[in-house]
From TrEMBL:
Native species: Streptomyces humicola
Keywords: Cell membrane, Membrane, Transmembrane, Transmembrane helix, Transport
Entry membrane topology: Multi-pass membrane protein
Descriptive protein name: AzlC family ABC transporter permease
Domain of life: Bacteria
Subcellular location field: Cell membrane
Residue stretches spanning the membrane: 25-48, 68-91, 137-161, 198-231
Family per record: Belongs to the AzlC family.
Amino acid sequence: MTAAPTTADKQSISPAPRSAVIRDALGVGTAVGLSGFAFGATAAGAGISVPQACAMSLLVFTGASQFALAGALGAGAAAPAAVAGAFFLSVRNAFYGLRLSQLLCLPRAVRPLAAHWVIDETTAVTLAQPDRAAARLGFTVTGASLYVLWNLTTLLGAYGASALGSPQTWGLDAAGPAVFLALLAPRLRAGGRERATAVLAAALLLMAQPLLPTGVPVLVAALAAPLVLLADRRGPGRRGTVVR
């Protein structure tokens, strides 16, 4: 049963909190949007053309999955394995959408468009807000700023890398892994469940790397998340565990 809207949900945001939401949302959108440079360079290094890289950012718009796909293709993985790895990384956005749909309660006509902006960053900003009005504002500003900047920097990064020649010559082929690790680093400082997932995923990846074809080890590493969740539920202290 859905709870009735609270007074805070119905009231508009006062000027000070509104400016703070916009400032934080623009900060997140700008900081992450600049990573599009690295994706564009990584895509060029993987043999992906500039139009293909731009189309991916426009239509896929989920950074980690894009980096995974470009990185796997650049390492020589078969297209089905690369796509599968990117797909499994993006599945989490569906669960974000289930939570945000209840929180934002957007009109039906807007939901298909809003779903395209459901990613890690918009979810984090939205869930950090105290009421529905602030959540909608944070989601919209973060999504719009990040989408525009990510696509612009993808174009510039891919075109620039192509103009410079071989990305390996300039070390741009390392841009994707570096950004991916930078995005992962905050998770290692989070709760024990996140650290356990990261450590287990790394261990699975290292074990699978010499045994399986390129692109497949990342699919094996993705098993870390359900394994950790299963172990957490079966643990002796599961009743007192706080879900983060």
